[in-house]
Amino acid sequence: MRYSGFRVIKEALTGHKGWKPVWRDPEPASHYDIVIVGGGGHGLATAHYLAKEFGQARVAVIEKGWIGGGNVGRNTTIIRSNYLLDGNEPFYEFSLKLWEGLEQDLNYNAMVSQRGILNLIHSDGQRDAFIRRGNAMILNGADADLMTTEAIKKKYPFLNTSDARFPIQGGLAQHRGGTVRHDAVAWGYARSADSHGVDIIQNCEVTGFRIENGVCKGVETSRGFIGAGKVGCAVAGSSGRLLSLANMRLPIESHVLQAFVTEGLKPVLPGVITFGAGHFYCSQSDKGGLVFGGNLDGYNSYAQRGNLPVVEDVCEGAMAILPMLGRARILRMWGGVMDMSMDGSPIIDRTHIDGLYFNGGWCYGGFKATPASGFAFAHLLARDTLHPTATAYRLDRFRKGYLIDEKGVGNQPNLH
Amino acid sequence: MIIDHPLLGPRDSSEFTYLGDASLIDRPDPAGEDASSDFYDYAYLRDNPAGWHKELWFHEAGDRSWLVVTRNTVTHEISKVELASDVARAQGRSK
Q1: Is B73 in contact with A302 (Cβ distance < 8 A)?
Q2: Where along the sequence do coiled-coil regions lie (chain A) (predicted)?
Q3: A-B contacts (CB, under 8 Å)
Q4: Where a domain ends, among A308, A341, A374?
């Protein structure tokens, strides 16, 4: 069923009796060409691009719970491509371009809103670093705009520009950045994948991999064995747990990242703003809540909740630049489990086991990467070659010394 | 989280900084035959378990001791706190 304005009007006039479930609930077949483990944003995007762009028909997505119930439903919905390094920036810019055409591609309203993102500058050294980053972005075809304090004051008059310790001295803006309705991304990809013949199998937990003579033949699941020509794992947050079933140790630690949302307010915040002196970022959802977050808690965790010291730190950051936020009441706070890789950058690659492919290590930046991650992983699964924008995301880069370390802090996941 | 420091008693976790898996105590032998591969494992690969995890915490805003904390990564419950120096000595290290 195609969605359109005409369709909405027709259904409104006929009592909304024509809407049907938008994906099937199939029994797993005994064998697929490609099985994707993980029905989150990245897994569903992979399935969509496999079916639509790479002509793969016999594809299944296997999900332990319900689709979109993991990190794609627990993030702060920001999209951007403001990276510095050559290994990252072309990939994230490719992702932003896919976001720009996503709704037409999926025929689904994902509420992609390019309201802009502004990284605030608080010192001369930071200005130099951000100018360098902005130039790297422009060189890779992205947009970047160095804003003066005056321009920022005009656009965001509520910001505290004259904080005694961290005065705002400008900002690096990416006007094409913004936010997307996160759940709709999972649902839109699922609907499209299903309509192209992908089986989405929910409530089906992978309990093991069947590996014979170094070749992965399929997955053991709570609903029986499912054979596969290729198995792709896209379960960021739980990658360590899943791949331990194949006796693999990964360059990844799982960490918890908290996020917060206030009560619904009238429109006050026209974009995404990040604090450059601490770690705090904030945007306003279309429902009116101010959505914000900050640093990782900083210790290994699979609990989808964090602790109070980080809450305090985030709120201090908020009060430093957005004092008006102090008047709002926090409605909800939650934690998501991140695959923190050893250099802060993701992995899309084969493993040493033939037929077993890995997509993970997305740190706290997986949401914005969803379309490109799905596209690049589908490219790898379908053609067995790396997508041109994702050639640096090799699993063996740590052994070979080709780290992609945006912050330059080394193999310390809680500092990325 | 409250970390029950073996010398100072219960302290808030915000006084500490976190390094990672306690296996980082066992630095490989740099003169060993497989040193390059051993150091890759040591520096980059982690067990990353969901459940009990032995990990290194540094009492930065306290007595600056290194601790080995046994903590559940699913519930954040802490079952055991030891001085890292005691753990290292028990493993045969001289200091």
Answers
A1: yes
A2: none
A3: 70
A4: A341
Using a CB-CB distance cutoff of 8 angstroms, which residues of chain A are in contact with residue B22? none
The verdict on A395 and A272 lying in the same domain is no
Distances (CA, A) of B25 to A2, A106, B28, B46: 59, 51, 9, 13
Contacts of A62 (CB under 8 A, 6+ apart): A28, A35, A36, A37, A38, A39, A201, A204, A206, A219, A221, A226
pLDDT recorded at residue A33: 98
Q: For residue B43, is it left (φ>0), alpha (ψ between -120 and 50) or beta? A: alpha
Q: Mean pLDDT, to the nearest integer, of A401-414?
A: 94
**At what angle are helices A182-195 and A366-383 packed, to 10 degrees?**
20
The tokens describing A141, both together, are 């075809």
Domain that holds residue A322: 117-176+253-341
Q: What percent of chain B has pLDDT over 70?
A: 99
Contact A376, A387 (CB under 8 A): yes
d(Cα B77, Cα B94) in Å, to the nearest integer?
A: 31
Backbone angles phi, psi at A274, to 5 degrees: -120, 140
Q: How confident is the model at residue B95 (pLDDT cuts 50, 70, 90)?
A: low
What size, in residues, is chain A? 416
A235-265 pLDDT, tens per residue?
A: 999 999 999 999 999 999 999 999 999 999 9
* Token representation of residue A182: 């996160």
Once rounded to an integer, what is the mean pLDDT over residues A371-375?
98
Of A89-93, A324-328, B58-62, B91-95, where does mean pLDDT reach its minimum? B91-95
* B2-90, CATH topology level: Folate-binding fold (3.30.2270)
- Report the CATH number that the domain containing residue A162 is assigned in CATH: 3.30.9.10
**Subunit contact A249:B45, Cβ cutoff 8 A:** yes
- Pick from A235, A300, A316, A402 the residue to mutate for testing the B interface (most B CBs within 10 Å): A300
* Distance in angstroms (rounded) separating the CA atoms of residues A101 and A174: 18
Angstrom distances, CA of residue A360 to CA of A97, A176, A236: 21, 26, 5
| Number of domains composing chain A | 2
Query: Does position A1 have pLDDT exceeding 90, yes or no?
Result: no
Please, which residues 20-59 of chain B have a Cβ atom closer than 8 Å to chain A?
20-21, 40-41, 43-50, 53, 55
Strands B9-12 and A199-201: unpaired
For helices A89-100 and A124-139, what crossing angle results, to 10°?
Answer: 70
Say whether A253 and B48 touch across the interface (CB within 8 A).
Answer: yes
Mean pLDDT of A127-138: 97
- Mean pLDDT for chain A overall: 96
